[in-house]
Specification:
By secondary structure, this protein is mainly β. The protein has a domain at about 40-60 and about 70-175. It has 1 helix and 9 strands. Strands 1, 2, 3, 4, 5, 6, 7, 8 and 9 form a 9-stranded antiparallel sheet that branches. Keywords: Signal. This is WxL domain-containing protein.
């Protein structure tokens, strides 16, 4: 029986050795390939309203409900903070930080200015930059948020920077003030979207 086991083992070993795979060409016990990873440059900005949709028209009207004869209208009572600034940014390896600018199109009432402030951002992640403080909107783009790197603020209401709009009146121009409806547009632009 022992002799038969040795014969079977010898036959099996010989059969296995005869059928062993011998590598040919470049095949070995290891293989590899390259993976190309591409990360795009991104610069997206949006303004969200309290209803969860993109911002629509906001209304700014001074409160005159308690106005006394002889008193000036308090234009500072015309304020709105129902909108939120959201953005996503990926900058190139040799790219400077970005800014978000704001500018105004249309005509404001004589002597009236529109002030805008971006609050502190507490949502999202990355280098989200910081508010430039209160600005008086004009037809020239002004920095509203500066120092933006690769980041996101999250998307939607109560995400990103809360925007506060407020009217202001230059009392030296009070004589030029006229009642009526005035429509203006605020344009937000995220700068520095050059490719790497």
């Amino acid at each position: 029986m022992k002799k038969l086991s040795v014969i079977i083992a010898t036959v099996l070993f010989s059969f296995g050795a005869a059928n062993a795979v011998v590598p040919t060409g470049d095949d070995t016990n290891e293989a590899s390939h390259d993976v190309a990873i591409s990360i795009p440059t991104i610069a997206l900005v949006d303004v969200e309203g309290s209803d969860g949709n993109e911002a629509g028209t906001i209304n700014l009207t001074p409160d005159v409900s308690a106005l006394e004869a002889g008193a000036a209208v308090d234009f500072g009572s015309a304020t709105n903070n129902s909108l939120w600034l959201n953005y996503t940014s990926i900058i190139g390896s040799d790219q400077d930080e970005r800014s978000i600018t704001a500018e105004l199109t249309g005509t404001l009432p004589a002597g009236v200015s529109l002030k805008l402030t971006a609050g502190t951002v507490s949502t999202g992640n990355g280098n989200r930059g910081s508010s430039a403080g209160e600005i008086s909107l004009t037809s020239s783009a002004q920095d509203l948020v500066t120092g933006i790197g690769s980041c996101y603020t999250e998307s939607g209401y109560e995400k990103g920077h809360q925007l506060t709009y407020q009217l202001d009146m230059n009392n030296d121009s009070y004589a030029d003030l006229a009642s009526g409806s005035y429509d203006v547009t605020v344009i937000y632009t995220i700068t520095g979207d050059d490719e790497d």
